[in-house]
Amino acid sequence: MLGGFSNIPKIPELQKRILISFLLLSVYRIGAHVPTPGIDSVALAAFFEQARGSLLGLFDMFAGGALSNFSVFSLGIMPYISSSIILQLLTIAIPHLERLSKEGEAGRRKITQYTRYGTVLLSIIQGFGIAVGLESMAGPNGASIVLDPGWGFRLMTMITLTAGTAFIMWLGEQITERGIGNGISLIIFAGIVCRAPAAIFNTFRLLSSGEMGVFFILLLIILMVGVVGVIVFVESAQRRIPIQYAKRVVGRKVYGGQTTHLPLKVNTAGVIPPIFASSIIMFPATLANFIAHPWMKVVSDALVPGRMAYELLYIGFIVFFCYFYTAVVFNPVDVADNIKKYGGYIPGIRPGKKTAEYIDAVLSRLTFGGAIYVSAVCVLPSILISNFNVPFYFGGTALLIVVGVALDTAGQIETHLLTRQYEGFLKKGRLAKRR
Question: pLDDT (tens digit, 9 = 90+) per residue, 92-150?
């Protein structure tokens, strides 16, 4: 792997892409510390200290600490993710959007434009709801969080937070187009990783105060290493379906006759299901935290990480999005048609419809295993951590996103190296390109 990194300076274009990614991520991290006007930062910090480990703490993790600072990036990238989910669901239900999704690059650009409009709309709604909620909240000492409540504060906060989310969305698109990897995933990755030093410091503080023992910290480290190992192993695992191509005679030349395979990943959806599931749960739960109503209080208390209702709902959404996103990115019918078009077949399976049914059956079983794996990684550490006084940073969702995005980014860099005939990160074998 070190040898692969040593080849990066030999490719100016790759250097430029990595530099652009770092610069844009730095801009995002700077913006996470630019406060929104009209807030008592001391009272807000005290409030979030009490909310550590709750759903607000989870939202703050995805926002990279921007919510606890109530910066211009407080909403984070979650409105964009929510808008993407809505558009993908509507693509199945609305014929016009379904036609756009099949029109190639032009159709995708149009859907992306609709996603941007949806992001702005959701940001306006969430920004206004948060502003109203903050006016009714107070710190532990009774101090009001909002210095000057009223419509002026509400409108200013709504516009500021909406502009911040729109700017993050633009940063993510620029990283995707001009940098390395998926820009939205890298922004979430940066927000989680940047909190590692604070989490480590907090762990040592708990150790020095006697709230955590040395044995428990060693057990936690072993658990983290084990979870990371499982994530790396499963994310690289494949089910290879053998494909045989018949020989074809064109003039005096013979083509085909070789045997290859169709690689199917155990977790085709990657880190998308936990991100989507968290986004769906956070939207109503965040509003419930800021609206003073008995029913909203019940919702807020139920949707807390570690509670049975939250975990069951979380698992349900993860399983749903594992199947949904896999169906979006992988079409067995198209794959079977392409195999048949080029004279290929799966040994023992008839080409065409039977091949599509076979691939779909194998993919469904793999997706079920992948959904169980993702749910276990995301939920089990959360249940264990909720019973101990440790930083929420060590949650399974964070680890899955960090490791998954790191593997994806390494695969992107590997692709740039291999396309220019440089040795990649691995001397034996190559990182499989992740979706």
Answer: 778 888 888 777 778 888 888 999 999 999 999 888 888 877 777 765 566 677 778 88
**pTM, rounded to two decimals:** 0.72
Q: Is 427 inside any structural domain?
A: no
CATH number of the domain where residue 112 is located: 1.10.3370.10
282-333 per-position pLDDT tens digit: 766 666 655 666 776 676 667 666 677 788 888 899 999 899 888 888 888 8
Name, in order, each residue with C-beta under 8 angstroms of 50's C-beta and a sequence gap of 6 or more: 140
**Residue 71 φ/ψ, nearest 5 degrees:** -85, 180
